[in-house]
Write a structure and sequence with these properties.
Maltoporin, Chain A; 5 helices; single chain; mainly beta; Immunoglobulin-like; 5-stranded mixed beta sheet; 56% strand; 752 residues
Length: 752
């Protein structure tokens, strides 16, 4: 390791710091007419600009070297190429081909900064602006728009992603370039991220342990933070959205300024909702929730060095609904409720060498999760009135996580080969300060080493990778040895080798094929290993198993896609074999009124796939017909079905888009969507079947000028027919509590 670091420092020292500039023109291929407001962007450098009225652009303060350049604008196929910048002035003129296909974005969650069509691994990606069009009250609800992604929910305010039937610690969430650690093992523990200040969302469906280590066995949800303003620009905006069903309000405001070297941005958001109303007009007591969120960033770039510091503060107070009770519109949570406070700091430093780069990401997250519940009052001896004392949290878990990610990317002197060597790890402490212990005080330390290469041929791309991880978990003995809730000391080590291989090939006539083979693993978490007590939020007594071993899986993923100027068609199938799958199962015992559940292991299999169709019939480019379907089947080797497997879902959307409507409106859109969930009959022994249901959603919006500024407005109606239904992944289903009824949302965003 010493010689490795010395070698890297030597490479840094020998690099020159000559500046490069790039200017040129972007035009339409058929007519040669200039394209205004086209985005010209270097993803790896984080530098870009927009073209002027004549299609001209200029980007300054660039390091010499070879970097990916992406040019995109709505209505044209995105352009991507590796461009070599030399010291001084560089010129590049680019012609774009018309296309009604939506504008492509660079995929950040996988290495090498590829457009989706160039990527070996299939990744679902959507800008946050598009997800907001479904008027979801939370980010977890919004990402259900992505095919193959669902959500385990506890009312409206608590939700967490499900990717191809896997959730909780099997889905790793990344924000600001670092892993999100917020006691995500609990099914009633929400995502914990506000959508304000999120630029786009990416989902890797399948094991991504090669890239991210343990906990990426089922997939990765990657949240890309808001971009800085272009050099020399100032930006600001404010938005407000109201919801009829919950009398909810979402407000956020942000601003940013960028010079040639320094960049700054900040955004604050506030969310407040009362109890939601189901399709029968009944309010679900204590489903109310509120949230504060602050995000900020400070970046510096000069020569071959770039640095980006980000900070996010989030405070959420969701109620935990248990029954239908008080019918009011209050916003203060009733007992039981959670109070979750998080501080997320990340710093990304990158050095650009002539034919390579070195990136170091450091992160720190402090997560304080408190759960308040009702306490039994015991009368004090003696006469006089009983004085009520303020009760503290029953659970008070303080989780602190330090993590690092070091990556060295180089090309071995070959233009068609890119390689990344990396080292990742984290140091984590969990401390309890409440009167109850759900998991013990503990320390987790892990480290991973990885190597992956991308090889580009004329019609084919090949990606190979190998990784080794080691994790140590040490837990303190908790409680009285004679107590039934005693947790013994824990000291376990887990290790795993994993590999991945992927092939993407152009089959001709717009047809692309992908085959990916990957292994993954997940070390058991503290709750699975050492819990021994009542989990009030889940209404059960949970018993861990200190003898659990790694979950290990191997997934085969095959996709076939067809694309032309007016049609996108894709079919994606997978088979996921999981050895030693960990699950909770009832023992049949009762402890203080709560059913007892214990963690067990059994081999399991999951299989299914997704289908997608996107049609814009020529010459009606303003008309979009979209159809997406997803199916997952999961079962243990003993023949029992896995819990929390989403039903077969099918979404069909008719969408209209227009660049201009007269002289006052632009970027106008309208949509009508039918969301169908089929009957779920394949359920675990302690689940119930769920009948099918159909939901109708509609919406429209546009941009206009107001006081000389751009104003975007939108009107959306979810569950237009006020359908009464229960989603299969709703944790309120056992109590017979319905999902939300009709909701009308009105929103506007003012861009200054």
């Amino acid at each position: 390791m010493k010689y490795f670091i010395v070698g890297l420092l030597a490479l840094l020292a020998q690099g020159t710091f000559a500046q490069a500039e790039l200017h040129g023109n972007i035009n339409e291929a058929s007519s040669g007419n200039p394209l205004e407001q086209a985005s010209v962007y270097f993803p790896q450098l984080g530098a870009g600009t927009l073209t002027d009225a004549n299609g001209n652009f200029e980007i300054r303060n660039l390091p010499a070297g070879t970097y990916k350049l992406v040019v995109s604008i709505i209505g044209y196929a995105a352009f991507s190429e590796n461009i070599r910048l030399t010291s001084g002035d560089n010129q590049r003129n680019i012609s774009l081909q018309p296309s009604a296909i939506e504008m492509e974005e660079v995929i950040v969650s996988t290495p090498f900064h590829k457009l989706q069509r160039e990527n070996v691994m299939k990744v679902e990606q959507s800008p946050m602006k598009a997800l907001r069009r479904i008027a979801a009250p939370t980010l977890a609800e919004g990402i259900r728009e992505l095919n193959g992604v669902e959500m385990v929910s506890t009312g409206v305010g608590i939700g967490k992603p499900v990717i191809r039937g896997l959730s909780a610690n099997r889905v790793l969430v990344y924000t600001q370039g670092i892993r999100l650690e917020n006691q995500q093992f609990g099914s009633e523990h929400g995502l914990g991220v506000n959508d304000a200040g999120i630029e786009s969302v990416e989902v890797i469906k399948g094991p991504a342990s090669l890239l991210y280590g343990s906990d990426a066995l089922g997939g990765v949800l990657y949240l890309n933070p808001e971009r800085y303003a272009d050099a020399g620009q100032v930006k600001a905006d404010a938005g407000l959205t109201g919801f009829s069903n919950t009398y909810g309000l979402m407000a956020n405001a942000g601003a940013g300024v960028s010079g040639e070297k320094w960049k700054f941005l900040a955004r604050v958001a506030r969310t407040s909702h009362a109890d939601y109303k189901d399709g029968e007009g009944t309010r679900v007591t204590n489903s109310r929730f509120g949230e504060w969120d602050l995000k900020s960033g400070l970046a510096y770039q000069a020569g071959r060095f770039k640095n980006d510091f980000r900070y996010n503060y989030n405070l959420a107070e969701p109620g935990i609904p248990e029954e239908i009770g008080e019918q009011n519109k209050d916003r203060t949570p009733l007992l039981p409720y959670q109070r979750i406070e998080s501080h997320i700091l990340s710093n990304t430093s990158e050095w650009f060498l002539p034919e390579s780069s070195l990136k170091l990401i450091l992160g720190y997250m402090a997560n304080n999760r408190q759960e308040f519940e009702e306490h039994e009052e015991e009368p004090l001896p003696g006469p006089g009135p009983i004085e009520e004392e303020e009760e503290g949290p029953a659970l008070d878990m303080q989780l602190n996580t330090l993590n690092y990610n070091l990556q060295y990317q180089f090309g071995l002197g070959l233009e068609n080969v890119e390689t990344i060597l990396g080292m990742q790890g984290m140091w984590q402490t969990n401390r309890n300060a409440g009167e109850e212990y759900l998991i013990p005080d503990a320390t987790v330390a892990d480290i991973g080493l990885m190597a992956t290469s991308h090889i580009h041929f004329s019609q084919t791309d090949l990606q190979l990778g190998l990784r080794y991880d080691h994790r140590n978990i040490q837990g303190d003995a908790t409680g009285d040895v004679a107590s039934p809730e005693f947790i013994p000391a824990l000291d376990r080590n887990f290790g795993s080798f994993n590999l991945a291989a992927g092939l993407r090939t152009d089959l001709g006539n717009g047809v692309t094929g992908r085959v990916n083979l990957a292994s993954g693993f997940r070390a058991p978490n503290l709750s699975e290993l050492a819990s021994n007590g009542t989990h009030s939020g889940a209404n059960r007594f949970e018993i861990g198993n200190a003898d659990l071993v790694n979950e290990k899986n191997f997934q085969t993923d095959v996709s076939l896609e067809y694309q032309n100027e007016h049609l996108e068609l894709g079919v994606n199938g997978f088979f996921n074999r999981v050895r030693d799958f960990i699950f909770l199962a009832p023992t049949g015992d009762i402890n203080d009124g709560d059913p007892v559940y214990q963690y067990q292991q059994e081999d399991a299999s999951l299989y299914g796939g997704e289908f997608g169709l996107h049609l814009h019939p020529h010459p009606l480019d303003w008309l979009h017909l979209e159809s997406n379907a997803a199916l997952v089947i999961g079962s243990l080797d003993n023949g029992r079905d896995l819990p929390l497997i989403p039903p077969f879902t099918w979404r069909n959307t008719l969408r209209l888009e227009a660049g201009k409507l007269g002289t006052s409106l632009s970027n106008a859109y309208a949509f009508l969507r039918l969301e169908s969930a089929f009957r779920q009959e394949r359920v675990s022994p302690f689940e119930t079947e769920t009948p099918s249901y159909n939901l109708v959603h509609l919406g429209f919006g546009a941009q206009t000028e107001w006081i000389g500024q751009s104003l975007e407005f939108r009107v959306h109606v979810n569950n237009l027919l006020d359908e009464t239904y229960v989603a299969h992944l709703s944790r309120l289903k056992p109590d017979g509590i319905l999902n939300p009824g009709r909701n009308v949302s009105l929103g506007m965003t003012l861009v200054l």
